[in-house]
Amino acid sequence: MSEPASISAGIAGRYATAVFELAKDAKGLTVLEGDVDALGAALEESADLRGLIASPVYSRDEQAKAVAALAAKMKLSPTLANTLGLMTSNRRLFVLPQLLAALRDMIAEEKGEVTAEVTAAAALTKVQADKLAASLKKTVGKTVKLNTTVDESLIGGLIVKVGSKMIDTSIRSKLASLQNAMKEVG
Predict the structure, then answer these.
(1) Composition of the chain by helix, strand, coil, percent to 5
(2) Are the CB atoms for 94 and 53 separated by under 8 Å?
(3) Would you give the DSSP letter of residue 153?
């Protein structure tokens, strides 16, 4: 991990631990999980929001007003809304993506879940996703939450990453290994 990335992860980790512990003490993990998902979706969809948190052009006051309006509009829990306000006043809003990732990990750990990163050649149907999650649950021993992306260059099959394990059943990787085998022969 590069130094700036590890610094950002460290900052985000401290905020995430504080938010998680406060929500856990208040028995508000379910609310926090909803807030994290909603804020993550907003961050993914809105280039303006990504610009607001990353750009030093915006003043502290402009960021504070925007974050307060966002928290009110999204009806975020007071714990998360106050944390975002604190991050804004400390000029730490740029670590928001890492904060959300850390909170997701903490919530999943608390619930006994693990997230599997799944890359498929085509979008998975609900039945396929459920079967994959059930199969992974048998292997991992925990409830598996799928984070699915589509990459048509795989041609077919899946790439599944759970923790440090990776399973690559894509046609692209099979063709690449076949191509390597043919180079060795000829």
Answers:
(1) 70, 15, 20
(2) yes
(3) G
Cα distance between the two ends of the chain: 40
Indicate the angle between helix axes 96-111 and 29-45, nearest 10 degrees.
Answer: 140
pLDDT at 5: 73
Q: Which domains does the chain have, with CATH numbers?
A: 3-109 (1.10.520.20), 114-185 (no CATH)
Residue 103 near residue 20, CB atoms below 8 Å: yes
Ranges of beta strands (E only) in the chain are 113-120, 143-150, 158-162, 165-168
CA 145 to chain centre: 11
- Tally Cβ neighbours within 10 Å of residue 116: 22
From CA 14, how far away is CA 10, in angstroms rounded?
A: 6
* pLDDT beneath 70, residues of the chain: 1-4, 186
Tokens for 49? 């929001």
Task: Round to whole Å and give the CA distance between 75 and 61.
Answer: 21
Structure tokens at 107: 């919530």
pTM for the whole structure: 0.73
Q: Show the beta-strand stretches assigned E in 64-157.
A: 113-120, 143-150
Q: How many CB atoms lie within 10 A of CB 182?
A: 9
